[in-house]
Amino acid sequence: MNTLNEIKFIDNATIGSRHENYTTVFVDVPTVLKSWQSSLFSFQWLQPDGQIKDIEALPEEEQPKRQGVEEKLSSAAAIEQPILGIGLMENIEIGAGRAEFLTLAAKGVPQIPVHIPKSNESDFKEFLAAID
User: If DSSP codes are grouped into helix, strand and coil, which group holds residue 30?
Assistant: First the structure.
């Protein structure tokens, strides 16, 4: 598996011209996953125990997304940074880049750079990775 240093991350195209509204932080993947379990959308990717599903167990429309990320990892192509936010239940929500975040998590990447809204910066303190 690629280490974090071997993965090239690029800005998510979704933020486009609104780049000034976002900042990039490194998040601790297990902490984010635990919070994301409360999301209404987590059932698509997570088993009831919080483990990420194998590609074959994903919904049919999610399988090609995961396969695409795995192909990018294999070819050392750039990966778009996911966009995270805080949901109504004060849990993490993955706004864009769900397949990227969860595929990297499934591969054991412990920390991932993500875009977050600058307005949510203080809400992310408990999710930040300790970077050496």
Answer: helix
Q: Measured between alpha carbons, how far is 12 from 24 in angstroms, rounded to an integer?
A: 11
Q: What is the mean pLDDT of the segment spanning 3-27? A: 87
Alpha helix (H) ranges present in the chain?
29-36, 63-75, 98-106
Q: Where are the domains of the chain?
A: 4-127
What residue has token string 């486009």?
Answer: 16
Q: How many CB atoms lie within 10 A of CB 117?
A: 18
Condensed to tens digits (0 to 9), the pLDDT of residues 80-107 reads 999 999 988 888 999 899 999 999 999 9
Q: Which of 114, 131, 118, 107 is nearest to 35 (CA)?
A: 114
| Cα–Cα distance list, 47 to 58, 60, 69 (Å) | 10, 16, 20
Report the predicted TM-score, pTM, of the whole model to 2 decimal places: 0.91
In this predicted structure, what is the pLDDT of residue 4? 58
Range 4-127: architecture per CATH: Alpha-Beta Complex (3.90)
With 90 as the cut, is the pLDDT of residue 16 above it?
A: no
Interstrand relation of 9-10 and 83-86 (parallel, antiparallel or unpaired): unpaired
**Alpha carbon 93 to chain centroid distance?**
9
